[in-house]
Design goal:
Blueprint lengths: L1 H19 L3 E5 L6 H19 L5 E4 L3 H9 L11 E4 L12 H12 L2 E2 L10 H8 L2 H11 L3 E5 L1 E2 H7 L4 H9 L2 E5 L2 E4 L4 E4 L7 H6 L2 E6 L5 H8 L5 E6 H9 L2
Parallel strand pairs: 1-11, 2-3, 2-5, 3-4, 5-10, 10-11
Antiparallel strand pairs: 6-7, 7-8, 8-9
The structure holds glyceraldehyde-3-phosphate.
Amino acid sequence: VFIHRFKGLRDLEEEVGERLQIKKVIVVPEMIQDGEIALKEIGKAAANYLKSTVQSKMIIGITGGSTMAAVAEEMGKEQGKFQDVIVVPARGGLGKDVDKQANTIAAKIAGKLGGTYKLLYMPDNIDKNVFSTLSEDPVIKDVMEYIEKIQVLIFGIGRADKMAIRRGLSPAELQDLAQKGAVSEAFGYYFNRNGEIIREVNTIGVSLKKFKELKLVIGAAAGAEKAEAVVAISRLNANLVLVIDESLAREILKIK
Ligand code: G3H
């Protein structure tokens, strides 16, 4: 039974990879129908994959959210192997929940790898004037330089509607997003089904241009409800490695 199941998952990975035309798909099995367990398994699989790609002096970018928090939580501790690795938050954003902030997650992953980290003291959705003043700050400038040098980005993929509510957008803004067909949110951008930008969060962070140029991007998501969001992101960069659960993989295959 297990071998059969294992083969089923490998087939599923291949099918999704072919459908989305991306580098690699890792599907974690759903032992129990429980969101938390899926997140844990995804965190573990994404953390292991990230580790397998880490090279000396690598600069790793990471975003916030519950999926990335699971990556940090599930990552096994390394001793002395990755001392020269630097982990950088890929986007500003200081939400209410400290465990889910990119800063916290970057620090935690650096701790697990035995490397170092940078912190970005920059909230989400700030006023344009504050934004340009903060951008002149030497500490923030320093982190911005590291963000420009990220070699691998590991990021969470969210539904546009849910992320907009989480970020406290107004009812009018929510309606505007929906009207424009926003289905996906990742690293501070909202996208439609074709991966076109609908809206950008006003904060410092990895640019879409930079994202598209990266040789390796690792996106992780759990839950069938994120299918459209994931498909949209897959249009941005073919070097995407996707870490998802079984039900999400099956839902992606249902999308025309
Ligand atoms: O940008 C997308 C979010 O990071 C996804 O958040 O992992 O909490 O669902 P989540």
